[in-house]
Amino acid sequence: MPLWPKLNSLWRSLMERQKVEDDLTNEIRSYCELLEQQKIREGVDPVTARREASIELGGAEKLKEEVRNVRRGAAFDVLGAELRQSLRGLRRNPSLAVLGTTMLSLGMGASIVVFSIFQSALLKPLPFRDSNRLLAIWETRLDRGIDQASFSEANFWDVRSYNHSFSEVGAYHYDEANLTGLGPAEKVVACEVSAGFLRTLGVSPILGRDFSYDDDRGGFRNPVVIIGNKFWKTRFGSDPNILGKALRLNDKAYVVIGVLPPGEPWIDDQLYMPFGYRPDADRDSWEFQVIGRLKPGTTQEAAQVDLAQIAGSLAQSFPEQDKGIGFFFTPSSTWVASQTTRRALWVLLGAVTFLLLIACLNIANLLLARGTARMREIAVRTALGASRARLIRFVMMESLLLNGFGAAAGLFVAYVGIGVIQSLEIRGIPRLADAGLNPWVLAFAVFIALVTGILSGLAPALQAPASGIAAALRDGDRQTSSRGQGRLRNILVTGEVALSFLLLVGGGLLIRSFKELMTVDRGFHTENRLVFTVNMPRSYWERVVGKQFLDRFFERLKANPQVLASGAVNQRPVEGGDPGMGIDTPQSSAKPPWAGWRVVTPGYFAAVGLPLVRGRLFGENDKPVWIPKDVPPYPRRVIISDRLAKQIFKNEDPIGKQVLLWKGQSSGLAEVVGIVGDSRERGLAENPTLTVYLPYGTNALTSEFVVHTRDNPLALVPTIRSLVGELDPNLPISNMRSFDQIVYRSVAPQRLNAVLLSIFGVLALLLATTGIYGVLSYSITRRTPEIGLRVALGATRSNILGMTIRQGLRPALIGALLGAIGAFWLSRYLATLLFGVKPFDALTYLAVAALLLATAALACYIPGRRAMQTDPATALRIE
Amino acid sequence: MPPSNTNLLQGTLDVLILKVLALQPMHGLGISNRIAQVTSNTFLVKPGSLFPALHRMEEAGWLTSSWGESENNRRAKFYRLTAVGRRQLKQETDLWARISAAMARALKAT
């Protein structure tokens, strides 16, 4: 069978290589001898016969090479030989190997870091079954400009019952609870979910059971709880007998019925309690996150039509609350990373691609220069019978090898880099803690090593055999043979400079934008402020205990000489949530502005440094706007922010005027008693918010405390802890931070972007500079005789210096110009990440151009000076 | 085994070698001399094409080789046809007959 000899010969050529080789050598030698004898027999004299036989044979090595190439397994053989050859070549030229590997390891390390973050944030699927059928559903009131709002409880139950598109719809209500009885009191996240919520997500408990539909009868009353995996692990040491145990939450016992599998951080470290249908479910307050799992075969569009019908009937049945209601979906893939985060990560990935490309161009340049230096070696190889394909393979192999080393070193750089970035604990980059050198990232590293290997080997490989053998073998042809190559290297350098320009502009814009962000007028003041959370259980709201605690606490704090001001609010500034309402004058018929509302204690404004613009602040007589049924009505009073006042009252004086709160929902009149300054309450990058401040009281408690201290706010931490413990040992303190830290954390993604992009820019600059330097210094060396001649003919030193610098700067100038055009075109993708800076910021562009050209000039100066010192006598002697 | 008739020249060499070896096992120089002889020196096979062809055909299983003594007592490598090689020769001969007939007709027609 033909298969057998094939395998046999493959085996032989791979395993018995020496034997096969000897055999071939003998065969050729025997052929030669036979030929020689034949010629002698034909009457040729022995010396001539030998020579003729050799000529006819045409070079034993070349012949062997040709035979080897037809042999099976030849590819392996050749590959191995070439690999060894390339390794030898690199070892002979350690500076190339070290320089190349270093450059590549930086470029690749950066790429791998960014890719690993990118992969874990954007590519890793949600740990839920069929997550592509999972949608978040939102209410909308497009007529009022609300395009994405949470659900009201009653609307959720209606959508759940009447839809035909989802196999299950679940709701989730964020809540916190005080956990007592396990060491010191602690605030934990305890969410209420509908019985089908976990089924909708596609998560089943690993221990115990899911909520049954019986659990959700009777609103929020059923005392059972499912715990997240991390919660179970950290607080109960993964106790397998946890089921049936009771947890004391808000002074009530809940029985543990299940434990969830490990998963996303936001489902891991919390508790779940069931909430069920109740006929009197609330339709006013939008507090529920709703998710749905599409039935198999149902499209998102079909579901949209289905829900639009439900919206129509809801709007008819409940005109007061559901007028103009609509529904809106977001796919589950967007749950992990926000649009801005996505954009930021894409920009980083793009930037790092450019950086890698620059490193690639640089390697190509190095290899080209090396190719020129080895012109003779290559010519000799060609003369000895190396085929063009083999020479190309040889150069390619070298490039691939170099890139392989680069990738290996890059993995190390990335390992360190990811560790550093993770240690910064940056909020806003999802799943950062999961990023690492997983198989995906390793595959990416191999992929980029191959791609960059081929890319950087391309130019030198095609260049190598093109030059004439004879010319290369002749001495002293160095000036003539490689003008084309000089041009090619100049083009590569131009590309490097252009790409560096892009990166530097990106980095520069982000730095400028970050500076703008940090110096923008925030409205509030952060220095010497301590912020912490004290959560009070629901029972505190119904009795007077909660308000009593607040009053006593602030009274005791005031007595402390370190405390300048103290107050509290129901949502933490910058980091907290943003409950809102429609608010306007009762007379107005226009669309009411949407403003965030905050319950505050009188001291809050002083504590965060918000100035009073007009009117007065709250006093002891201002009571919560929620008037209990058993209390005689009293006048409601509110304070509004400056922008809101201008928007509602235009040029009128708002003090003493009436406003309608929750306009369009459960409206209620209130009097405006004061106007305070605006603040960037939702984060520095957001516009100052429209805010309504409401007075605190028994049924309006506040959990976020702000204390303005004389000195370092963190020094006050022990005092606060002991004070709270003294007043009420059941209340947990959490999230204790300085206000500065909160702001610092909130801009962490922007800072990371600015820092990373700047690092990339500087690396790019470094690489491009090396490129410029390399090309110029090489060309100076080649032109030494010419320069000598010029000097001999009377060129001054400054003439020579000027000439070389002009020559070196030309690619830099063209590159900078191209880079500016490219940056102008690309920076639009950066626009959404910028704050207070336009994508085409002339200052940034000019600064980058100046930096690039100055560095380039410096890189030219060193070879230029060498040229300047050329001694005509020695230079001409080389010729 | 797909016949390697893609390349006319290569095919020519292969079929000539097969034909020559069909008579008796031969060493390289012998093959080359015999081809020159039977084609009246139309084809002079140089070692540069002979050796790769022999080794390729051996890989393909058409030939086997062994060391032996040449006519004047020199060690030489002898090639002999295998059964597969014989079948191959038959196929190639038929093919050549068809091609040459077709070519002859075509060239006469014009």
Chain-wise SSE layout:
The complex is a heterodimer of chains A (879) and B (110).
Chain A lengths: L2 H13 L1 H25 L4 H12 L2 H11 L3 H19 L1 H30 L10 E8 L4 E4 L1 E2 H10 L3 E8 L2 E5 L5 E8 L3 H5 L5 E2 L15 E4 L1 H8 L9 E4 L2 E8 L5 H4 L2 E4 L11 E9 L5 H18 L1 H4 L2 E7 L7 H35 L1 H9 L4 H36 L15 H25 L5 H5 L4 H4 L1 H37 L9 E6 L3 H5 L2 H14 L4 E7 L10 E3 L11 E7 L3 H5 L3 E4 L21 E5 H8 L8 E4 L6 E9 L14 E5 L8 E6 L7 H11 L5 E6 H8 L1 H35 L1 H9 L4 H30 L15 H27 L3 H7 L1
Parallel strand pairs in A: 6-11, 8-10, 17-22, 19-21
Antiparallel strand pairs in A: 1-2, 1-12, 1-13, 3-12, 4-6, 4-12, 5-6, 5-9, 7-10, 8-11, 9-10, 14-23, 14-24, 15-23, 16-17, 18-21, 19-22, 20-21
Chain B lengths: L7 H16 L2 E2 H11 L8 H13 L3 E7 L5 E7 L1 H27 L1
Antiparallel strand pairs in B: 1-3, 2-3
Describe the overall structure.
The complex is a heterodimer of chains A (879) and B (110). In chain A, 53% of the residues lie in helices and 15% in strands. Chain A is built from 30 helices and 24 strands. The longest helix of chain A is centred in the middle third of the chain and has 37 residues, at 483-519. Chain A is elongated. The model of chain A is unreliable at 476-481 (pLDDT under 50). Chain B has a single domain, classed as Winged helix-like DNA-binding domain superfamily/Winged helix DNA-binding domain (Arc Repressor Mutant, subunit A). Chain B contains four helices and three strands, in the order αβααββα. Chain B has helices at 8-23, 28-38, 47-59, 83-109, and strands at residues 26-27, 63-69, 75-81. A three-stranded antiparallel β-sheet of chain B has the order 1-3-2. In chain B, α1 (8-23) crosses α3 (47-59) and α1 (8-23) crosses α4 (83-109).
